[in-house]
Amino acid sequence: MSVFPSPPSSPPSDRRRYAIVGLGSRRELYQDGIEKVHHRWSALVAVCDSNPGRIELARRRSTQNGAPVPLGYLAADFARMLRECRPEVVIVTTSDASHHGYLVQAMEAGCDVITEKPMTTGAAPCRQILDTCRRTGRRCRVAFNYRYSPPRSQVKDLLMSGEIGDVLSVDFHWLLNTHHGADYFRRWHSHKRNSGGLLVHKSTHHFDLVNWWLGAVPVSVAATGKREFYTPAMARRMGLSGPHERCLTCPEKNRCGFHLDLAASPDLKSLYLDHEAHDGYWRDRCVFRADIDIEDTLNALVTYNTGATLSYSLNAFNAWEGYTVAFNGTKGRIEHSVVESNYVNGREAVQGGVAPGGVKIRVVPLRSAGFDVEPWSAEGDHGGGDRLMLEDIFLPEPAPDKYLRAADERAGACSVLVGIAANRSLESGARVQVADLVGDLPVPAYAPAGARGESVPMPERAR
Ligand SMILES: NC(=O)c1ccc[n+]([C@@H]2O[C@H](COP(=O)([O-])OP(=O)(O)OC[C@H]3O[C@@H](n4cnc5c(N)ncnc54)[C@H](O)[C@@H]3O)[C@@H](O)[C@H]2O)c1
Questions:
Q1: Which of 2, 94, 415 to mutate to test the pocket of ligand 1 (most atoms within 8 A of CB)?
Q2: What are the tens digits of pLDDT across the range 2-54?
Q3: Confidence check: pLDDT of 351 > 50
Q4: Which residue of 148, 241, 271, 320 pairs with 389 in a disulfide if CB–CB is 3.0 to 4.6 A?
Q5: Residue 433 to residue 436: CA distance in whole angstroms
Q6: Looking at residue 183, what is its pLDDT?
Q7: Beta-ladder partners of 304
């Protein structure tokens, strides 16, 4: 039985019809957005997953939300779901490497699509998505929620205002602590075939921010990377006898600081542990396993079509979580940093929230005193970015946005190709040209041709 039947109540015809494929933790954001916040103009008509247990869970959520219960389909019946339920928009929240298949199939069937980041994990699927968008004329939206976080929009505002002139270089360093950072080494993310590694899965957010902040298109990437913390040797250095299979059955669970107790968390239990029998998806695999093939320490140097350069790093075992970014411009420098609160996906109410007093923005003009700028703020997950992004996605007529935060397949490609190029560079040791991965890359809306080149006043002499 592949269809999970629905009670007779069906959504009124004046609402936009959505389907969601991939019913894990990220699905909740979209389902609740449709059913609890934007239900007057949106309806969830179908849900799809490879795991029947999570299909039932998503359907129960609709009942809890007081919404009509969507039809449920197994992944193998995705095409049938499109035919029978006629969604206008398909939201893709499966694991990363499977996004493109659903995006292409849905657009070919006449649907618009919204995909979680990263848009895809490989150059050939990226090309296929771009070609399908062009051929079908369907809209592809990439859910870059980080752009909507108020301080990051504020940095965009400062850069657009010309406060520091043209940006010539960027230093951007992202730190994941051993709560959130370790989580990528527990499950599907820990294999590049599923996630593309952290340079694709995680850094796609960061590379998109830089592309969008600068209004620039990436040209070339050189990278280095290694895995030195989440390793069998590190387990032994921490006094364990070695890595084990998973936390649930770990003989050293009482001695390991990385032990994750799925059964103790109602959310993790109902989402993952209760449905393991269907697909063998273990959410609590040992973070020190030998078979992990993603890096935990990464550096990349990126060049852009504007002449700007980026020096980037990602570290997944840090003492605190957050980032520092500095823009060096022809008229000065902007320094911005955020310290985030703890986060384990699917477990905690506050996801990627900002620690109290954790946001700083400072402008330092060339040859005069720097000053702090009061950061913009908002309530909610991912620094308030998730709620604002949902409004932009689901409102029938979203407000005009001078920051152009709505991202499409062009931005999705420009971001993910930096990570894919970085992975190629890790393998070859050489600098990789983005155009060698995907030629004729369409230019995103935020990167107008010829935006650069305003005259630069000579700095005043130091007194
Ligand atoms: N923007 C953000 O801040 C953010 C945060 C978390 C996750 N994400 C993204 O959301 C997506 C989902 O992540 P998650 O944390 O919810 O993962 P998850 O493991 O909790 O859920 C993934 C779901 O997809 C299903 N699935 C996997 N492969 C499938 C396939 N081929 N066909 C159908 N179903 C399949 C799984 O059974 C599971 O229910 C990922 O792409 C991730 O990068 C984005």
A1: 94
A2: 566 654 455 667 899 999 999 999 999 999 999 999 999 999 999 999 999 99
A3: no
A4: 148
A5: 5
A6: 97
A7: 218
CA of 68 to the centre of ligand 1 (A): 23
Give domain limits for the chain: 3-143, 146-229+292-379+407-436, 242-279
- Give distance in angstroms: CA of 270 to centre of ligand 1: 16
The CA 264 to ligand 1 mean position distance, Å, reads: 22
Q: How far is the CA of 434 from the centre of ligand 1 (A)?
A: 27
Q: How far is CA 45 from CA 62, 76, 326, in A?
A: 10, 18, 45
Sign of the torsion angle spanned by Cα atoms 211, 170, 436, 294: negative
CATH (residue range 146-229+292-379+407-436): 3.30.360.10
pTM of this prediction exceeds 0.90: yes
Best of 73, 81, 96, 116 for a ligand 1 pocket test (most atoms within 8 Å of beta carbon) = 116
> What mean pLDDT comes out for the span 298-318?
98
Q: Ligand 1 center to residue 188 CA distance, Å?
A: 9
